[in-house]
Amino acid sequence: MGSMKEKAEGAKDKTYETAQSAKEKTTGTAQTAKEKAAETAEAAKQKAGETAQAAREKAEGAKGKSYETAQSAKEKTTGTAQTAKEKAAETAEAAKQKAGETAQTAREKAEAGKEMTSGVLQKTGEQVKQMAQGAAEAVKNTLGMGKDGNDVDHDTPTPTSPYKQQGQGYNKD
C-alpha cells in the first residue's frame, strides 16, 4: 500500500513539474513576443523617420508633390505600425493559447494519474475482500457449516462418529 502512495506522490510531483515547465515556457514566450514587438516598433519608427526625411527633401524640390509624398509616408507608417501591432497581438495570443494547452495537458495528466491510482486501490480492495470471503467459506466448509451442499448431517452416524444408534436418536456410550 505504501507503493501506491509513493506512485501517487510521484504522479503528483510529475504534474507539478509539468505545470512549472509550462509556466516557464509561457513566461519565455511572452518575453520573446514583447521583445519582438519592441524591435518591430523601433524598426517602424526608424522607417517612418527615414520616410519623413525623404518627404521633406522632395517637398523642397517640388511643392506640389510634397503633400502627396507626405501623405504616402504617413499611410506607410500607419500601415507598418498597425502591422507591428497586429503581429504583437497575434504572438501574444499564440503564447496565451500555448500556455492554456500546456496547462490543460498538465490537468489531464494529473486526472489520469488520479483515476489510475483510484482504480488500482479499488481493485486491490476487491481482491482482499474476495480472499477474505474465500477464507471464510473454506473455514465454514472445514467445520461443516458451508453452503455448498456438502453440509454435514450431525444426526447421521459416520464410521468415525463416537455416537451409535439406539432407538430413534443417537446417544453417547
From TrEMBL:
CC terms in the record's Gene Ontology section: nucleus
Skewed-composition ranges (Polar residues): 157-173
Disordered as annotated region, ranges: 1-173
Residue ranges, compositional bias (Basic and acidic residues): 1-26, 33-48, 55-66, 84-99
PANTHER family associated with the record: DAUER UP-REGULATED-RELATED (PTHR47372), RE19971P (PTHR47372:SF11)
Protein name (Swiss-Prot/TrEMBL): LEA2
